[in-house]
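Budget justification aside, the reviewers requested a transparent look at the raw inputs and outputs of the sequence design task funded under Objective 1. We therefore reproduce one unedited record. The lines immediately below are the structure tokens for a 226-residue chain.
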């Protein structure tokens, strides 16, 4: 199989691999394969699959919904979401969001690189930004939402997750700098598929909150228990 120019250049120039070297491949469907580099050219690199080394495995059905924040912090969130096993990253535009667009292609590339580093056999999808109201309007009937609410009067995340039925599909919602508006909080708290949770006594930045929430969810309901 031929690699694209960017992948071939990375493999031969950055990783310094040559003809005859082995690499591990995955496509998110057919597991992990050991392949041999059989051809290297100026603009191409050809691999030949040799043997499957792992069957396809998917992590928990977990989405991360995060409001758009500053670029560096958003890139960190996507990177850590891939490392922590999230299946999809959905970008939200809330009332207090400071931006309404981002480079989804750049975030997707970060997700690919982080997935390769962790050894997972799939890459989380990064969806284009949508308004939070639109996301909630089209919510799947079989998915539960963990709403990280810094507004007070919430149970700790571990207590809250331990007291609700554990469906197969979950999502985590992280707000922007400035948090959620009064109207957004009221709507979220009125939805029967929402579990409001607290992340401790301190106000966390969006990237810290996302990493903390994903880690706690994995520890309580995810594949960290395996």
């Amino acid at each position: 199989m031929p690699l694209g120019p960017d992948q071939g250049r990375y493999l031969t120039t950055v990783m310094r691999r040559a003809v005859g070297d082995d690499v591990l491949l995955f496509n998110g469907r057919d597991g992990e394969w050991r392949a041999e580099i059989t051809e290297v050219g100026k603009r191409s690199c050809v691999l030949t699959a040799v043997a499957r080394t792992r069957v396809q495995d998917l992590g928990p059905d977990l989405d991360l919904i995060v409001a758009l924040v500053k670029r560096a912090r958003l890139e960190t969130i996507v990177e850590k979401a891939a490392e922590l096993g999230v299946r999809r990253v959905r970008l939200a535009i809330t009332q207090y969001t400071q931006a309404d667009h981002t480079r989804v292609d750049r975030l997707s590339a970060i997700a690919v690189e982080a997935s390769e580093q962790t050894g997972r056999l799939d890459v989380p999808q990064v969806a284009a930004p949508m308004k939070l109201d639109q996301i909630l309007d089209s919510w799947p009937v079989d998915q539960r939402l963990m709403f990280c609410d810094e507004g007070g009067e919430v149970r700790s995340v571990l207590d809250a997750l331990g007291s609700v039925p554990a469906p197969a599909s979950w999502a985590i919602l992280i707000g922007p700098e400035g948090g959620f508006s009064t109207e957004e909080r009221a709507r979220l708290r009125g939805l029967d598929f929402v579990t409001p949770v607290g992340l401790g006594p301190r106000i966390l930045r969006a990237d810290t909150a996302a990493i903390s929430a994903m880690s706690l969810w994995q520890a309580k309901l995810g594949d960290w228990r395996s």
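The longest strand covers residues 45-54. The radius of gyration is 20 Å. Computational costs for records of this kind are itemized in the attached budget.
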